[in-house]
């Protein structure tokens, strides 16, 4: 199904899964599965994507036979990797600031100011998405590495 716009800016409109379902006349669960590993343009709540992103996600899902159990498109993999890299950079800068601060109370303030702590949560979410794109055979190894090595070490450094 093609996306036709009545004006030149409508494809840039932000829509929820439900809004995309109405606009494209597709089942909301199908839309939700297609967008499951696509970073929202607005995290919400509720999360929203550019309307033009949705047909791409649906096409990638159709081409790859994606059913939520791995097999993400190369575009999705690239997006998730870029997101993890970007968030990891921000977390590293935060860790550097935390480790340079000798006062425990001030470290807590640093975590709370400017939503610094949310960067860690967003990184954890992105790491979870990176695990979800693995096929069933490799997912347990990826999950073990992400949860025990990456998340555990990061939390250990924050709690110093």
Q: What does this protein look like?
A:
It is a single chain. The chain is mainly α. It folds into two domains: about 10-65; about 75-160. Helices cover about 65% and strands about 0% of the residues. It has seven helices and two strands, in the order E-H-H-E-H-H-H-H-H. It has helices at about 15-25, 30-35, 55-65, 75-100, 105-110, 115-130, 140-160; strands spanning about 15, 50. It has a two-stranded antiparallel ribbon. Helix 1 crosses helix 2, helix 4 runs antiparallel to helix 6 and helix 6 (about 115-130) runs antiparallel to helix 7. The radius of gyration is 19 Å and the shape is globular. It starts with 13 loop residues before the first strand and ends with a helix.
Beta-strand residue percentage = under 5%
Total count of helical runs of at least 4 residues: 7
Helix content: 55-70%
Structural class: mainly alpha
Mean pLDDT: 77
Question: What characteristic shape results from the CA principal axes?
Answer: globular
Number of domains: 2
Radius of gyration: 19 Å
The main β sheet shows up as: 2 strands, antiparallel
Number of strands: 2
């Amino acid at each position: 199904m093609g996306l036709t716009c009545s004006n030149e800016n409508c494809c840039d409109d932000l829509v929820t899964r439900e809004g995309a379902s109405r606009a494209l006349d597709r089942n909301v669960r199908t839309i939700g599965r297609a967008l499951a590993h696509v970073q929202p343009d607005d995290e919400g709540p509720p999360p929203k994507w550019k309307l033009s992103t949705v047909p791409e996600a649906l096409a990638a899902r159709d081409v790859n036979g994606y059913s939520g159990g791995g097999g993400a498109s190369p575009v999705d993999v690239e997006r998730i990797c870029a997101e993890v890299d970007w968030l990891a950079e921000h977390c590293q800068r935060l860790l550097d600031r935390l480790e340079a601060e000798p006062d425990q109370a001030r470290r807590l303030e640093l975590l709370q100011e400017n939503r610094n702590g949310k960067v860690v949560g967003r990184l954890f979410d992105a790491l979870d998405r990176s695990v979800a794109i693995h096929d069933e055979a490799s997912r347990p190894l990826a999950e073990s590495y992400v949860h025990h090595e990456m998340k555990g070490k990061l939390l250990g450094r924050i709690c110093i």
